[in-house]
Specification:
145 residues; alpha+beta; 1 helix; 9 strands
Length: 145
């Protein structure tokens, strides 16, 4: 009987730990969503490729990304506007052409606060070979309405 009580207590503790962990995960997962909502203009782009770097401080066009609460993102640039659909999973930002289509673009949110958004996108190497690293950082500033 004593072993049964210990087993039940351990089971309850495990269930409570799982429940608490999932609550923390869900709250962390959703904490970025309200901060992302709004209009962001690209300021600069940093490229890294196997130790070689380049910083474009005047990217053309100056794209604006408008993230809306309904999980749509409007990209404005080059005289055009296009609607995309986004999902957030923790710090991962997934962009799709249509709500249920394959992921078109996957980026990691490096920084997100009231004034700045920094996105990292891993890119494929241009040449064959091992141990290559290529990525891009895009820096955005929040636009005030």
């Amino acid at each position: 009987m004593k072993q049964l009580n210990i087993a039940l207590k351990n089971s309850c503790l495990c269930i409570m730990a799982l429940f608490s962990g999932s609550c923390i995960f869900i709250s962390c997962q959703n904490e970025k969503a309200p901060k992302l909502i709004g209009a962001w203009q690209i300021d600069s782009v940093f490229d890294f490729y196997n130790g070689f770097t380049f910083m474009d401080t005047n990217p053309t066009p100056r794209e604006v990304h408008v993230y809306q609460p309904d999980k749509t993102m409007l990209r404005q640039g080059m005289g055009e506007e296009k609607v995309y659909y986004y999902e957030l999973e923790g710090a991962q930002l997934f962009i799709r052409d249509l709500p249920n289509s394959t992921i078109r673009n996957e980026q990691e949110i490096i920084r997100l606060d009231s004034t700045q958004l920094v996105l990292r996108k891993n890119k494929k190497p241009q040449f064959e070979g091992k141990n290559q690293q290529r990525y891009e950082l895009r820096y955005f500033s929040r636009l005030r309405p």
